[in-house]
User: What shape does this take?
Amino acid sequence: MNAGAAVTRDGDVAVFAVDNPPVNALSQPVREALLAAIERLDADPSVRAIVVAGAGKNFIAGADLREFERAPVEPLLPAVLSRLEACGKPVVAALHGATLGGGAETALACHYRCAAGDLQIGFPEVTLGLLPGAGGTVRLPRLAGWQAAFELMASGKPIGIAPAIELGLVDRRMDGDLAAGAIAWARELADARAPLRRVSELPMPPSRPAQFEEFLRMLPPAARRLPAPPRIVEALAAAAMLPADAALARARALFLECLGSVESRAFRHLFFAERRPPAEAARAREVSQAAVLGAGTMGAGIAVSLASGGIAVTLIDAKQEALDAGLARMRSAIDAAERKGRLDAEGAAAARERVQGSLTLAAAASVDLVIEAVFENLAVKREVFGRLGQVCRAGAVLATNTSTLDVDAIAAASGRPADVVGMHFFSPAHVMRLVEVVRGRDSSREALATATVVAKRIGKIAIPVGNGFGFVGNRMLYAYGREKELMLLEGATPDAIDRALVDFGMAMGPNAVGDLAGLDIGHQVRKEWKDKPDDPRFYRVSDMLAELGRLGQKAGRGFYLYHGAGGEREPDPEVPELIRAEAERLGVKQRTIEPGEIVSRCILALINEGARVLGEGIAASASDIDVVWCNGYGFPRHRGGPMFYADTLGLRDVVDSIRALAKSQGKRYWTPAPLLVTLAEEGRHFVEQVADGVAG
Ligand code: T1G
Assistant: This one.
């Protein structure tokens, strides 16, 4: 038998089980094995029915994404699945766990489908910039109807067993032993000479001519501009109009267009970059109990993440009122997670059980991990770490959630700097997946591995970073923000800047983000920032607004005006006036700034700073930077992150553009980073493996 699958027999029923850890992807040997098995079993008179199943945690998680970076090797999945469907004996799919993409398409190519209660079936191709390329667009509407087929494919969201049965994707729920149930059912079907229910031969539900136009309009505007979503609609329209074979060929052609697109390469780059296994996981210490210091928004959010991820946590705050508020915030976050289905009832109940509160630091004495989230001030944090160093048991890992302070200075105060690391969470901490794990000068490999493994265990993406101002994310943010602040002085309105960057794909514009976070926060950080650029224009507009009490959303005014219960925002005509006066005072000449210049200056600043961060070893790889920016700062995923995006622009062009900006804006901020120049001169990329063929 080929690798990746096994055929077993239960009397006259044959079971083909994919066994290709970790997720049973449909790698080439699996496809080859499936094709060979079907040919052989179809011809074998001692076999009366076939079950297709998956060994281990799930049925099949879809195509093997690693193969997409190479030329495809036969047999290709659409042909294998056509042969499977054509089989002359009943074929029953036995589904459980992840049944995704090509895995769901395999299920649809079987004649009947049963499933266990943990089924998650779906078509996530769109999240990879692809469309279902192995018959999904042809078969799914025949079972589930047009609307459901469109929604499943356009959203990429998997569904559980109940809706799958309701939509006709699954015929039977199997409680008890799935394989035994599937075998018994397959035998029954053979005994009854049940019809072979070939889905692509079922009648297509009627569709209205305007149906597909409507689907296009139903796509979110940002999705409409990507390659895959409109092509999903086009493939569905082809399925409505053409015979199954021709529609499948059309879907395949559209799939290949998507596969070669920069956007799909970007999504695939992030898929793997976000799943890099933690370094030195074996060194991690066991963590079953944790404490979080500081019951503010951040502390409570971190504590919710720990509790939901299976770690008992004590929330500690010296003030009763603050502690009560923090615990209440935690309860409502867990309730919300349950309401939104992120936790099931059992998981939510267990999370609530894991939470305790305390007014004294002594409660941290026996825990395995402490995460400090007190006020962002070095003296305060050093004081706390001094006490933690005394109170905590030997071997406990002490993490600080600082976003801008020097982790070494904090670690020194503890008297045991080997145990100290940074764990920089993003707000809201129970929702945002990113954690920068900061390596201090003396952090031990064990402490770093522990922080990384805990982060992964609670569902976060942990990125290792060095201990420099702002680490990776906020340091780059300051380069990006610097340019938007300069352009504000130069005459671009807050709204024009935000619109240009949102059109580029950023989740929010930087001025709207500032208002949301509160302009006092950054103002405070810049007051404490010792080697801030000596430039009166640097963040002058934000600082001025903060000084005027225009603190952002919470004050009802910042860059924008806010009103109504929902806090709707609108441009404030007063703000450009305030800025104009300030520009005049600073001698900055105002002019019209086009959206192209806004995007180019902000994004090139980000790329150049990213190259510095990488060159200095603050980030370990360009991929890590991309993960930080796509998960922490709303950089558009379809562009793959700033470093991948730079590759797609071509690094030589990036260097040329930066040099051109040095001429128009001055050299101060526009010297290309040494690493960027070197890579450009050598014709290389930041992200070598996937950028090939993109930048050319
Ligand atoms: N191909 C290759 N490797 C994969 C993979 C895949 N499809 N899915 C996961 N892995 C690796 C992953 O890199 C990691 O590797 C390990 O498996 C565990 O993953 C023809 C076009 C199944 C829900 O989009 O959603 O089918 O770190 O950490 O949290 O139309 O993986 O061990 O080296 O995520 O338990 C559609 C993608 C493909 C599913 C499991 N399928 N996978 O989650 O583990 S396109 C998908 C997932 C397609 C057809 C088309 C999740 C999971 P390593 P993990 P997990």
